[in-house]
């Protein structure tokens, strides 16, 4: 005897997404929505737009960097320039030679590193100081402010070659404008003209050029950041009796904290890796007082034709900059978190 199928009245069945009795109480999974072809194409569009930049970055930076790392493990000299893969494998010998301060190569690299650190510290500090002072001075509107700002940007707008070569002519001992002004016009420095491009004075000449062509960048960044500080804060501070210096110390500088962190890091990386300034000022062989790491690596690679040692120095420089950058970002990030917590 068969039984007729039981009918369920409308609206009395199990709700959507649940199971009927007898199915162990496990809800049925909802069907996944089908992805539309247009949505897939839109999600892939950003990657397609970034692909040319990624390929260019691969060809210009990553591939040469990998080749340089491989070269640092070989005794690559002028005898193997035609086919550097034939150079004998030396392991970490080039690195040991570069960091051994008891040998001439390591001692020269250490002296160059110390000179570069001092040069970078002075250049970054002066660029930040001049840029911030100029930005604060031109923050409020006055007659001729636009022209003055345009004049401030001239060193940054000039090509590096034109700017440094101009200073190289100005620093000439006999025909240079600097000696003419210092000795002839102001009567300073004695009767004989000063050598600016050789000896100890070469460091100060290089520092002058570096600050002159880099401080407008700091001025540009700080000027843009000052536009985000509400003017009501300065008005309230003035009503409370705060002077100009107190307003700068209590309002301006704290408001520029995040911008200054990025600005100092960028100036540090640019200055520590600066190659154009010493090369255009002094040529292929810089004086000992102006021997930066960048020009020192160039001399080790293209003057003495020891590409293996030069590549090892480049890798060490890269590791140093990575470590300093990571430590700087970690410390500044932790400092900002503590300040926000307070």
Task: Characterise this structure.
- This protein is an all-alpha fold.
- It contains 14 helices and no strands.
- It has helices at residues 37-71, 93-99, 104-137, 145-152, 154-157, 160-170, 177-185, 201-226, 231-239, 244-255, 257-272, 276-282, 293-303, 307-341.
- The longest helix has 35 residues, at 37-71.
- It is globular, with a radius of gyration of 32 Å.
The gist of it:
With 342 residues, the protein is mostly helical.
Largest sheet: none
What proportion of the residues is helical, as a percent range? 55-70%
Distance between the termini: 83 Å
The H-and-E topology, N to C, reads as HHHHHHHHHHHHHH
Strand content: under 5%
Question: If you average the pLDDT, what whole number results?
Answer: 84
Q: Gyration radius, to the nearest Å? A: 32 Å
Give the number of helices. 14
The dominant shape is: globular
Q: How does the helix and strand content classify structurally?
A: mainly alpha
Taking pLDDT < 50 over at least 5 consecutive residues as the criterion, the unreliable ranges are 16-22
Tally the beta strands.
0
